[in-house]
Amino acid sequence: MLIIDEEICIGCGVCVTICPTDSMSVNDQGIAEYKKESCIECFECIEICVQDAISRSDD
């Protein structure tokens, strides 16, 4: 599962461009979010996030 830190995310959209399943998006508040049902947990978004706003949870 992904965790997106809303206080750190700047809504740059880099995670959106790298996501192979189009699960990532930037919401109306300018914060990244993702669709759990389509995320394949490749974690490319974690690697590319320039703000380190995305992490993973083992839950």
Task: Report what the structure shows.
This protein has 59 residues and is of the alpha+beta class. The protein has a single domain, classed as Alpha-Beta Plaits (2-Layer Sandwich). The mean pLDDT is 96. The chain is globular. The protein is built from two helices and four strands; from the N terminus they run βαββαβ. A hairpin with a 5-residue loop joins β2 and β3 (32-34). 19% of the residues are buried. It has helices spanning 14-18, 44-48; strands spanning 2-4, 24-26, 32-34, 54-56.
Features:
alpha+beta, Alpha-Beta Plaits, two-stranded antiparallel sheet, 2 helices
CATH architecture: 2-Layer Sandwich
Summing up helix and strand content along with how strands pair, one would put the structural category as alpha+beta
CATH topology (level 3) name: Alpha-Beta Plaits
**Number of discrete domains:** 1
What string gives the helices and strands in order? EHEEHE
**Rg result:** 10 Å
- Give start-end ranges of low-pLDDT stretches: none
Overall 3D geometry?
globular
Largest beta-sheet details: 2 strands, antiparallel
State the oligomer. single chain
Helical percentage: 10-25%
Task: Give the overall average pLDDT.
Answer: 96
